[in-house]
Amino acid sequence: MARExxxxxxxxxxxxxxxxxxxxxxxxxxxxxxxxxxxxxFGFGLKARKLIPTPEPNTDTTxxxxxxxxxxxPYSPSLSRRRFLSAAASVxxxxxxxxxxxxxxxxxxxxxxSLKWGMVKNPSLPLVEAFRKLKACGxxxxxxxxxxxxxxxxxxxxxxxxxxxxxxxxxxGERGIEAALDLCKKLGGDSVLVTARxxxxxxxxxxxxxxQSVIKAAAxxxxxxxxxxxxxxxxxxFLISPLDMMRYVDEIGHPWVGVHFDVGNVMRWGVSEHxxxxxxxxxxxxxxxxxxxxxxxxxxxMAGFRAPLGEGSINWAGVREELAKIxxxxxxxxxxxxxxxxxxxxxxxxxxxxxxxxx
Length: 359
Prior knowledge:
The protein is α/β, with parallel strands linked by helices. It has 2 domains: 4-93, no CATH class; 110-354, Divalent-metal-dependent TIM barrel enzymes (TIM Barrel, Alpha-Beta Barrel). Helices cover 33% and strands 16% of the residues. The strands form 4 sheets. It has a 6-stranded parallel sheet with strand order 6-13-12-11-10-9. A 3-stranded antiparallel sheet has the order 3-4-5. β10, α6 (242-252) and β11 (257-262) form a beta-alpha-beta unit. The longest helix is centred in the middle third of the chain and has 22 residues, at 204-225. The chain is globular and about 50 Å long.
């Protein structure tokens, strides 16, 4: 059978007939042929004599948000056997190997620092003056909500005069995704943050399909204006695992839809660096905050966010390592409590430290 394996990763040799996908289970002697099937809700027909766990996703086999030719994830439930073989053949023809144990990227991430506009404690200043102060604090950009931008022309002028970029907007639900995309384009940004919220009174699958349909409807417009739709992981009891988020984005299957990964939000249910391993290139931007598990256990879940950046439970070394492995570069926005200018300057320095932007 024509295949090559590298550790726990699968790679096809150019020209090989990819008849099966081989899932290897770390720490196990079992190797299970997994035939793609639409009969199973996750797209797999499993044939084995012993019951063994569902295979881990191949984290490097990602839908590249900025490369429409990238083959779909083999973990998409809509991926038929025929489509999988076609995608595998296109990968082989292009000379691209599916997941490999490539070395990590060189140390030093190419990240620009932003923050949410709501963190500015004195927004009564003239906008251009507040932008200059943020620039002096060490920030490169700012992210307002759609409702905070009363006069888009004023925001554009302040950005141009101060040199502080408006890298994206949040709060797409206030105007609708397409209107938010248009506003972001006018402001000079490149992403709209979207959250997929759930109604606990609705069946889970109804929420899944309905929220996907809204994003799918707006995705063509995102491509037209060249502004990404990035879905954030939030505390909505929905998309609370990296596998959920991976599948959700892959089913949408549009090159201008990805993930706005909040490093701190996942600590309630998981481990930050694990999410990066799974989501890979789907991650378009970052939200930066810390979270203290001991404080949350003693004082309540929301209290965990009071941890100063770099002093909580997040393994920032692990986060940096995984970001380097996926070659992340782009924007990281602080999302913490509002503070005065001294506090914001200190926050910018803390971001430098946790993200490894300075030695």
